[in-house]
Design goal:
Length: about 180
């Protein structure tokens, strides 16, 4: 394993243009191209491609095309979970999705962080990443964006269009930009 991949996996600053990381993203994109080109009756082919792409694919889980991610192998999708159309999971750090999770259309789970204060580091394409964890039986409305480092507790619901910038506890309904707890469930 090269220096920048090792740094990325440890959550340290790395350069995303590192040849090893670029090759891994290209491999991922080739699998995604195949997955996204499948027809409506090709569920077995989709599952096989996801099995090759993802770090873990729980029994009974499925993903609708169009699906996008960076590496794939850092994504863990629990049992009986569902990603609707146009999901984007930027997995520069682990993304763990529990069992019985439903993620609405056009949701984004984004682990990448870019230097805000250091303009030169940004110009040189240095970045870091922070993991995202989604507990069991969580539901996302359409268009939810989850920011780096966020954990969403089990049995919570995130309202459509929310931008989740900080952790959400278990058993709540949260919504808005920035997302905030509106009531207990």
């Amino acid at each position: 394993m090269g220096e920048h991949k090792d740094r990325m996996l440890r959550g340290e600053p790395y350069q995303d243009g590192d040849p090893e990381l670029v090759d891994e993203r290209r491999r991922c994109q080739a699998l995604l191209d195949e997955f996204n080109a499948t027809g409506s009756g090709q569920e077995d082919e989709r599952r096989n491609l996801l099995g090759e792409l993802l770090g873990e694919l729980g029994a009974g889980s499925w993903v609708m095309p169009r699906f996008q991610c960076d590496y794939g192998y850092l994504i863990r999708l629990g049992r009986n979970s569902f990603l609707n159309y146009d999901a984007i999971l930027l997995d520069c750090a682990p993304i763990t999705i529990g069992d019985d999770v439903s993620i609405g259309p056009r949701c984004q789970l984004l682990t990448a962080l870019h230097p805000m204060q250091d303009h030169e580091a940004r110009r040189q394409r240095w970045e870091t990443a922070a993991p995202i964890t989604v507990g069991d039986n969580v539901w996302f409305g359409g268009g939810v964006i989850v920011c780096p480092g966020v954990t969403i507790g089990s049995n919570s619901v995130i309202g459509a269009g929310s931008v989740v910038t900080r952790d959400v506890p278990e058993r709540v309904f949260a919504a808005g930009n920035p997302c905030r707890v509106l009531k207990s469930l």
